[in-house]
Write a structure and sequence with these properties.
Radius of gyration: 15 Å
Number of strands: 0
Helix content: 40-55%
Distance between the termini: 29 Å
Oligomer: single chain
Order of helices and strands: HH
Structural class: mainly alpha
Strand content: under 5%
Length: 61
């Protein structure tokens, strides 16, 4: 079973709850991972050097 942990320093309880509610989960079967995620979402960004995320704070690096 996959286990994902997100660590954060939320400003307050209300902010933490908003963030948790905004997370979406898309399940991908292992046999579909390469076509659905790697080739369709990761590789195009990797080849162009485009980031998949944007850190707002330099301390995140």
């Amino acid at each position: 079973m996959p286990y994902i942990r997100i660590k954060a320093y939320p400003k307050d309880q209300a902010t933490k709850e908003k963030v948790v509610e905004a997370i979406s989960i898309e399940e991908v079967a292992p046999e579909d991972w390469v076509e659905t995620v790697e080739k369709a979402e990761i590789e195009p960004h990797y080849r162009t050097g485009q980031r998949l995320w944007q850190a707002d704070d330099a301390s995140c690096h």
